[in-house]
């Protein structure tokens, strides 16, 4: 029963009969992609990568970027073939069957909802640092969640209580999403320009201060071993968070004009721009102040602003912090946007309650699922630390990417003559490399994160067994067809 496949033609027909408005072009999608990719990963997780790999985090950026580029080529092929909401969930349903599709959709909750919480925490870290530098600080109990540890001025560690600002920003973004896709996309374009300006300013100011002595030793923790979560591979598994989100472009397929052309442009274009910026920022950061594990950079919650202040550019450091405060909400917006569209698709297929696929008659947005997602993200952001949320996000994302790679290769064999507006080049080289890279990064996340992922997967199996398989639209159609 769980292996039943939803035909691609049926998926396309359902999308054409849907009620989502097609309003996004190639530029909108590229800006949305850049908006969701450039965020907490580079603005916040640079310090976590320094703690795990030291200067070797440069290799970590290259490894994570390469895996994502290979995956983006595969995504571009399947997204141009099946331009509907749902991303990896929908693709898996069409190729690998309902059971796998459900598990991929369940894993994507980690990619989008948990990631939105992680970015909210990263945003709160920057705005709290900005407030502190100007003498307006909140009590510790309101600047971090109970599972987060904060280093005080005297060097001691203390736990937080409720991350108020992270909670509030998630609620604000929920309200923005309810307004509608086009308005959200326009806001994202403005915020993308703010982020690019901030990163460019950082590169220009930090690059002249690069000292090659800061790259020695290059790999203080080595390359890492499976399940260790440290070293170059461990940092790559964490910094992978800095690249994810490009696939959120594919979740907007059902609201895109000319998706055959525009979705591949949005996917590959946004990832290419982000990768160039990341490598330049990482090189400048390591070379300017050093990045040895246990060093001052590895302890900062606002590393880019911290580096500029260390170099004597205090005002510019504050401006970069302000840019992060202003621009990171665009990442939260796109993560939550992607999540709502995936849950919308799962609800439309009967695997989740029908109420989640209801569209507001005036706003033309899935308002119920948007509110539900917003409340969940707000809770994650208020309670958990950014590092744990980021690694958990990566586990779900890598699983989904792996299954999409497998699915595209199967579809090449099963339906070789189906129209493919974009074809991934050398699929029998790129495909195996992409899925192998995803598997390598997954086992490099660390045992604790993998255990959390397994626990989440078991919960998902229970939800599918007791609800999804009984209410599946495809199951009902098959039953009705067999019943005389």
The DSSP helix count reads 19
Give the N-terminus to C-terminus distance in angstroms.
20 Å
Succession of helices and strands: HHHHHHHEEHHHHHHHHHHHH
Q: Tell me, what is the CATH class?
A: Mainly Alpha
What value does the average pLDDT take? 82
Question: Main β-sheet: number of strands, strand sense, barrel status?
Answer: 2 strands, antiparallel
Let me know the CATH homologous superfamily.
Answer: Amino acid/polyamine transporter I
Low-confidence stretches: none
What is the CATH architecture assignment?
Up-down Bundle
If you consult CATH, what is the topology?
A: Amino acid/polyamine transporter I
Radius of gyration: 22 Å
- Give the number of DSSP strands: 2
Helix content: 55-70%
What this model shows, in words?
- The protein has 484 residues and is an all-alpha fold.
- The protein has a single domain (8-482), classed as Amino acid/polyamine transporter I (Up-down Bundle).
- It is built from 19 helices and two strands.
- Helix 4 packs antiparallel against helix 10, helix 5 runs antiparallel to helix 12 and helix 6 (88-95) packs antiparallel against helix 7 (98-133).
- The longest helix is centred in the N-terminal third of the chain and has 36 residues, at 98-133.
């Amino acid at each position: 029963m769980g292996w039943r496949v939803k035909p691609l033609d049926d998926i396309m027909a359902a999308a054409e009969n849907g009620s989502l408005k097609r309003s996004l072009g190639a530029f909108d999608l590229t800006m949305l992609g850049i908006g969701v990719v450039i965020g907490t990963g580079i603005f916040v997780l640079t310090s976590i990568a320094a703690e795990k790999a030291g200067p070797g985090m440069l290799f970590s950026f290259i490894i994570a970027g390469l895996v994502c580029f290979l995956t983006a080529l595969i995504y571009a092929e399947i997204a141009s073939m099946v331009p509907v909401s749902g991303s990896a969930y929908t693709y898996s349903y069409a190729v690998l069957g309902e059971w796998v599709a459900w598990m991929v959709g369940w894993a994507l909750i980690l990619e989008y909802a948990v990631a939105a919480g992680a970015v909210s925490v990263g945003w709160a870290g920057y705005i709290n640092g900005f407030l502190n530098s100007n003498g307006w600080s909140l009590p510790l109990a309101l600047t971090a969640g109970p599972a987060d540890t904060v280093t005080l001025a005297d060097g001691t560690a203390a736990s937080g209580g409720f991350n108020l600002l992270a909670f509030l920003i998630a609620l604000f973004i929920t309200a923005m999403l309810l307004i509608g896709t086009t308005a959200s996309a326009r806001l994202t374009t403005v915020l993308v320009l703010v982020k690019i300006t901030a990163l460019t300013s950082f590169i220009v100011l930090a690059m002249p201060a690069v000292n090659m002595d800061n790259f020695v030793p290059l790999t203080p923790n080595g390359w890492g071993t499976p399940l260790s979560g440290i070293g170059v591979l461990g940092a790559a598994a964490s910094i992978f968070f800095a690249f994810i989100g490009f696939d959120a472009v594919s979740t907007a397929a059902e609201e895109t004009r000319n998706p055959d052309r525009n979705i591949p442009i949005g996917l590959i274009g946004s990832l290419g721009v982000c990768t160039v910026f990341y490598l330049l920022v990482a090189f400048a950061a390591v070379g300017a102040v050093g990045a040895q594990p246990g060093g001052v950079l590895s302890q900062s919650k606002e590393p880019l602003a911290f580096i500029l202040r260390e170099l004597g550019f205090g005002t510019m450091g504050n401006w970069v912090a302000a840019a992060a405060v202003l621009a990171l909400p665009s990442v939260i917006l796109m993560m939550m946007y992607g999540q709502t569209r995936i849950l919308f698709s799962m609800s439309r297929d009967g695997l989740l309650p029908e109420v989640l696929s209801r569209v507001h008659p005036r706003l033309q947005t899935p308002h119920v699922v948007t509110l539900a997602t917003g409340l969940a993200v707000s809770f994650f952001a208020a309670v958990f630390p950014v590092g744990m949320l980021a690694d958990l996000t990566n586990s779900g994302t890598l699983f989904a990417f792996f299954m999409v790679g497998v699915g595209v290769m199967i579809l090449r064999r099963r339906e070789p003559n189906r129209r493919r507006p974009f074809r991934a080049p050398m699929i029998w080289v790129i495909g195996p490399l992409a899925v192998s890279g995803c598997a390598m990064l997954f086992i490099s996340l660390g045992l604790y994160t993998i255990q959390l992922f397994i626990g989440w997967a078991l919960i998902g199996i229970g939800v599918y067994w007791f609800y999804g398989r009984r209410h599946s639209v495809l199951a009902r159609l098959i039953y009705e067809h067999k019943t005389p």
